[in-house]
Write a structure and sequence with these properties.
24% of the residues lie in helices and 38% in strands. Helix 1 packs across helix 4. It is globular and about 45 Å long. The strands form two sheets. Strands 1, 2, 3, 9, 10 and 11 form a six-stranded mixed beta sheet that branches. A six-stranded mixed beta sheet has the order 4-5-6-7-8-12, with helices on both faces. By secondary structure, it is an alpha+beta fold. It has a single domain, classed as Roll (Restriction endonuclease-like alpha-beta roll fold), CATH 3.10.640.10. InterPro entries: Restrct_endonuc-II-like (IPR011335), YaeQ (IPR009822), YaeQ_sf (IPR038590). It comes from Aquabacterium lacunae. This is YaeQ family protein.
Length: 185
Amino acid sequence: MALKATIYKAALQLSDMDRHVYDAPSVTIARHPSEADERMMIRVLALAMGWPADTSEGTLELAKDMWEPDEPALWHQNFSNEIVHWVEVGQPDDKRLLKACGRAQRVTVWAFQSSTPIWFDGIVNKVSRTDKLTVWQVPSEQSQALAALAQRSMQLTVTVQDGTVWVSEGDQSVEITPIKLMGPD
């Protein structure tokens, strides 16, 4: 018998002062049985950080990456089913990233493992020819602290200012300083 997804719900209060994005999206997260809290919370962080300022052409949504190998962790498809933004979480290989760059207007990777520098050194020469790709690293200790906020029902406040992200749930708060490994300025 196949294991089923565990459902999590997150109500976000997003205040991104760097991009002037203020919204309160609610998301239902189907957590794959093999997915850890850390990866799931990085997906939520990626959703908040990639939330579009203009939602008239749709929004960023959680996709079925662990169930469907041709889908990313998150994506923003407009109403014509064109992929506006493709978001990967973890350390995808260069072929997957280049394929995504061919399908989407922009591609973002959120890597969080301590081995990220080694992974990135191995693919940077292969993916540097595309101008659609942005790669972020969340320091491992910060992503682990973010994982500690995971609950089946979450009320998350996400505040972004000067490149620093604060994620709060109740009286707990985590400061995250993502490091841009590549991408447009």
